[in-house]
């Protein structure tokens, strides 16, 4: 965990907030610091990081869960974060839709 926090206070501050949130989520799942609830905790940390940067939370819909787990697994096993970052970016973009509607943009 110390390495995770050391990493967080260094390099990630230069990453796009969506990329940073995705990497934090994956890395916490890999570390698996708790006996139970690692996935939920990692998603909460991911969403907290998004909100801190002014983004809406990302909710993983049931129909996207298979791809979510596949992309999460690829990031964890192959250190290829690209597909997970892309999926999270799409989920965040979808999360903006209610705001766009309220603003009359969509």
Automatic annotation (TrEMBL):
It is a single-pass membrane protein. Pfam families: Fic. Residues 1-90 form the Fido domain. Keywords: ATP-binding, Membrane, Nucleotide-binding, Repeat, TPR repeat, Transmembrane, Transmembrane helix. Its main location: membrane. One of its GO terms (molecular function) is ATP binding. The active site is at 32. ATP binds at residues 36-43, 68-69. One of its GO terms (cellular component) is membrane. The keyword Phosphoprotein does not apply. It is found in: Membrane. InterPro entries: Fido (IPR003812), Fido-like_dom_sf (IPR036597), Fido_containing (IPR040198). PANTHER family: FIDO DOMAIN-CONTAINING PROTEIN DDB_G0283145 (PTHR13504), PROTEIN ADENYLYLTRANSFERASE FICD (PTHR13504:SF34). This is Fic/DOC family protein. It comes from Desulfomicrobium norvegicum (strain DSM 1741 / NCIMB 8310) (Desulfovibrio baculatus (strain Norway 4)).
């Amino acid at each position: 965990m110390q390495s995770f926090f050391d990493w967080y206070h260094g390099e990630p501050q230069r990453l796009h907030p969506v990329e940073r949130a995705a990497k934090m989520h994956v890395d916490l799942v890999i570390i698996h610091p708790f006996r139970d609830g690692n996935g939920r905790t990692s998603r909460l940390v991911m969403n907290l990081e998004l909100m801190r940067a002014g983004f809406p939370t990302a909710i993983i819909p049931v129909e996207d869960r298979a791809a979510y787990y596949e992309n999460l697994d690829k990031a964890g096993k192959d250190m290829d974060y690209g597909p997970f970052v892309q999926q999270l970016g799409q989920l965040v973009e979808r999360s903006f839709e209610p705001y766009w509607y309220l603003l009359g943009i969509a």
